[in-house]
Amino acid sequence: MIPPAVIEYWQQAFGSGRCVFDDGRVSLRSDESLGETYVMILTRRDGTAAVAIAPALARRTGLSDTTPMRIAAIRARLSEHGIRLHDPDHLFYRVPSPGRSSGQHTVRRLGPGDRHAFEQFRDAASAQDMDAAWVEFDHPVVFGGFDGDRIVCAASMLRWHESPLGDLGVLTLPEARGRGLGRAVVGAIADHAVESGLEPQYRCQTDNLASIALARSAGFESLGEWEVIRTPHD
Fold it and tell me: How far is CA 19 from CA 7, 39, 160, 223, in A?
């Protein structure tokens, strides 16, 4: 079961009751706090969806938070007005389960003395992998998985928009994959998040099957797909 704090966060982000009706329509929330050019969509695993849109864009597109519409019609209306949809992120959250451990792997939190080892890890990874994972040594919390003295897997975590969520990224070097090290590192940083009073959040692209498999093996459950939409000039 998705932790209650996670559900509460997303309910507040989109407003209560913003879900698909029986006939497939979805209600919108127009919110000044979203700025002038912001839209987001959350499509949950159960098929319900929620849309939050900045008032300026609501006026521009003719989308009203008082007139329910089908989600396909909302997407079409956004597209007609040149509003680009970014690729969706899969949102995963860890469900309570006792007995997780790092097994035989050496996994620990990294400190200032590990900077050089992390830089060697970063240099051994492809730029594409580093960009997709967004694992940084200067993030508030960083964990590493070791092969001897070498870091071959790392995960880092940031607080998500002053929320109760800890957003994490993870990357394992190609030669170290398939040994359970990514699962061990994700488990360790997720444990740290919970001990710090945060709910660990794992995001990845919906077509990244390996990352989806890692999330599930580390005890995470999918909430659904989240999309952020901005106008082209952003």
Answer: 13, 16, 23, 14
